[in-house]
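Example record for the data management plan.
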Amino acid sequence: MGKLRVFGGSLSSGVYARIPPGSSSEDYTIGSIIAVRGIKRTFLAVVGDVHHRTGVAAAESLSGSPEPPAQAISQLRGRTLGSMVTLIPVAQTDSSGEVEEATTIPDYLTEGSEPTEEEVAEFYGTPDYKLKWPIGSPKNSTAQVPLDVDALTRGCFGIFGKSGTGKTFLGNLIAAAIAVASRHMEGQPPVKLLILDMHSEYALKVKDQLGRDYEKGVGQALREEFLSYTIDKTLEQEHGLKMFTLPARSLTIEDIVACEKALGLTPKFIELLPSLARRIRSWLRENRDSRSWLEWLVKADEEEVQKFFREKSVQPGERHSLLSARSRLQRLEKFEFMAWAPIQEDSASEVVQAIVEQGRSCIVAFGRYGDDALAYMLVANILARRIWEKYVDMAMRGQKPRSRLVIFLEEAHKFLAPDVYYKTPFGNIARELRKRGVVLCIIDQRPSQISDEVMAMLWNKFIMNLAEEKDIETATIGLPFKKLFKPLVERLRRGEALLFGEAVKIPAVVKVADYRQMIKELEQEYKRTLETPESRALAEAYGY
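Corresponding structural encoding:
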């Protein structure tokens, strides 16, 4: 492959470079990187497009021949038949050799070619396999692009892509990198994780495109790091995960409101709920009934309900709303993780205690409930509310948590859509808990369905293939040269991602690291850290 030569373009529309004679347009692929060695500085650029530039008429003429002469084609290619690439300049070296965002373009006729590993390292840095882990390689290079895990965990971040693009593989690698890097963060609280695992690919094994078990998820690879729970008794019995039990009496009005869409509750009932719940509690106290308002509403027989209506003077409109909601709330009875007996283990409190007081990471695997929107939203919202309350309470008392926390939230739009995010504890966490050390990793196929306010809070983004224009538009907010990068997003292949933000300061299009190899390296480093004096000192200092 010869050297490209710059012949035009601009910073906003991209730099145009001619493909040299002897090379073919087939040698260049969009998303690959090019080092352009200018007169005063070196530029790093991403190939945004490949074009046939000149010689269309000659090529058309030759294409009409049954067998165009090979010698004629050879003579014309690269001269009359000219091709070019559009380059997106993403970074440059300054006069002292320091790397900075691209603010100018290479001069005319400067040369560009595939960068050496040393040049890639000059722009992106090198992995140290402690705080900086390789997340992948540029499409045309074997050099590793490191992910600065400390920078990543300072704010909320997002993983976006269609189904089947490799989000779960990437999510597992990021979760493992956080767990390992945390053990190297000296002088600050470690980072722990709460993973809401819809399809049990973090707690158990990630699956290939055919749905077959492929390799350990982070919960199995880093067993010592995680307490793994499940709301599915089958997973408890077959894989030894701890059963997650949720007492009905622990549910609050806010929990029900947060799940109003999944439950199919009407706005009228939601408006009446605080008043109805208050009257139900009063009536239960008068009748010396120890049930909670929700337990009574779900379990009471018709005679009890009618008696309540009479004694508490419930109006006809209120009666209709309550009875309609009651039939919908009775869906909660089908969940095996719901506990209706007076005294039951409260796993939500146990998880929060493990994270906040014991410095443990936790996974909740949803098993066969993974596609049940109500089960997922109910458990996720309750855990988030408990975390929110705990961290706010500690702040009010002037207490500092033992650890920071990253919450992995799949199907994030269910909780962070414009019409619901202000009603859910996840919205509160995104808005107000970053300074308390709690951030979200939001994972979704449809970023356009997430509130703009939440999207604006993301410090880092990992974008895999997206097809819908509005999803691409939303996901690339904050990306330098957004207009030039947008066409790349819909052409990303499975396992490729566009990365940008504080943790990878120069935008990069990478082939995500081989999962099997990387998860094993992370597992080995994690086990090694368990035995180091520094690790033992951290465990003693933070009580885990």
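Summary line stored alongside the record: The mean pLDDT is 92.
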